[in-house]
Amino acid sequence: xxxxxxxxxxQAALGFLLTGLGACLVILARDLAIPIERLTWxxxxxxxxxxxxxxxxxxxxxAGPDLPLRAGALTTATGATVLALAPDLAVATIGTLLxxxxxxxxxxxxxxxxxxxxxxxxxxxxxxxxxxAAVLSPAAIGALDAAGASGRxxxxxxxxxxxxxxxxxxxxVPADPxxxxxxxxxxxxxxxxxxxxxxxxxxEFCFTIWAVARLQDTGVTMSTAAILGVAFPLxxxxxxxxxxxxxxxxxxxxxxxxxxxxxxxxxxAASGPGLVTAALAVAGIGVAVLYxxxxxxLTGTPGLRPAHAAPLGxxxxxxxxxxxxxxxxxxxxxxxxxxxxxxxxxxxxxxLILRPRSVPVNNPIDxxxxxxxx
Length: 374
What we know:
The protein is mainly alpha-helical and 374 residues long.
């Protein structure tokens, strides 16, 4: 199995699990007859896992990036099994935390395995796999639950494709060797690129976490809102499938930000579920390119070693995942939820202001496509 296929499989499994986690928590609350409020903190397990892995990232990557991918696949598969079959809250909590920790390992390994001049295109392709699988998750959970079985059992779908990833890959990417002569990255440039990942992921997870709640706010039932909520990951899947084609022709980050702003405005202004669903799909198309491009910018920072770039990317994502949805929720306590989605607009403005001043020199991009990183 090629490196790209291994990473794409892991990312697809992770996308399926993360998108289905919210619905699983609702079903878990029903199965265990406990208030959903007692489970909401579990939705931050992925962000907590990313921060934990980021702290130990350079150590984990010393033996090469394939080891974190294998460990992440095993831990994620174990967590999915535990969550699907959990008989009580304590066991379900363990399963959710294992998914968060294992998923963080996959995220850590991904940029370290997909390096080179075409890193941004390869990252976009594996992100497309994650988004495509994410579209299938709500449907699988809903179908099983409607058939009389617990929808949590849908989490078991990811176990078979994850198990082959536990086996060491042939031609594994070697560990990043020490290089005492390499210059250190400029702090200003590094901070700028790292902050752009925080902003990109923050925008994405504002929609990911709160899309279904916004749809339910239009008056539809919870089950209908969950089904319509597929619109956002579907938009992301479309955007990432088109990404490798369009990102060589247009400045994708400014274009993506404009599309997201249109989607956020529609999500705020629309009243009916149909228009809100369409607006979420539009926002998903725009969001699709932000993370792959900003992550490629970080890994291409001059003087930044892969063993340090990957943990920094994981840390940025973890901080965004924990803080941004919470900030939107806090704003929704002051204004209506629909208006709270406008928090994404200043985040997008900051993302554009902080754009890199030059294309990364150790992740070169063809001169004809230098607008990719801008």
